[in-house]
Design a protein that fits this description.
Elements: E1 10-15, H1 22-32, E2 39-45, H2 61-70, E3 74-79, H3 83-95, E4 101-106, H4 114-121, H5 136-157, E5 163-165, E6 168-170, H6 172-178, H7 187-202
């Protein structure tokens, strides 16, 4: 797509686990030898894949950066939880000429929720997308921790947080009202069903 429509920016999001796949490596090599400077890849370096931890001794951040660099990519490494880093890296990537850019974002899966961060640090993929939705007890714990962090941030900037979907504005507490407690569904289905409930409620 980047080569067919060079006038448009094309964004690709990759997990660190899938960088081990042969077809992905072939694409990295092929695109890196082009002048597709309208292509921006973002690697979520969270060290966790579907079934187990990524082998960091073979796939650390510097190794990933080297793999892209030797194949002709412009490489930017950032803290994936720092919004200023994210904004600057995207701005720099859009301005770069002559080669595609990869932004390697160092992240922690489940950032902001203590038991999810602990599982990620131990290399366990139990909260990877597609796994079971949280049970009620874990959901309440995660909700309280996240809302507490959000409140701290809002108090610091004296602003109101909301999520906007077209003409509908939703505050964090709105999600609590309908809940994401859809047991038996995976995480994506639970979120989508809850979001549909909220939109229906708001009319």
């Amino acid at each position: 797509a980047a080569m067919i429509t060079p006038e448009r920016k094309v964004y690709v999001v990759l997990g660190d686990g899938e960088l081990q796949e042969g077809n992905v490596q072939e694409a990295i090599q092929y695109v890196g030898r082009s002048n597709a400077d309208n292509l921006i890849a973002i690697v979520d370096y969270n060290k966790i894949q579907l079934s187990y931890a990524v082998a960091v001794q073979y796939m650390d951040m510097d190794t990933i950066a080297h793999n892209f660099s030797v194949n002709g990519w412009n490489v930017i490494k950032i803290n994936g939880h720092n919004l200023e880093n994210i904004e600057k890296s995207l701005s720099d990537a859009r301005k770069h000429k002559g080669a595609p850019t990869v932004i390697i974002a160092d992240t922690t899966m489940g950032k902001g929720v203590s038991f999810m961060e602990k599982a990620a640090a131990e290399g366990r993929s139990i909260f990877h997308h597609g796994q079971q939705a949280l049970d009620n007890d874990r959901f309440v714990t995660a909700e309280q921790e996240l809302l507490s962090r959000i409140k701290e941030s809002l108090d610091a900037v004296d602003n109101e947080l909301y999520f906007e979907f077209g003409r509908i504005r939703l505050k964090p507490e709105d999600f609590s009202e309908v809940g994401l407690r859809v047991e038996g569904d995976n995480t994506q289905e639970a979120f989508i069903k809850s979001l549909c409930k909220l939109i229906e409620k708001e009319g």
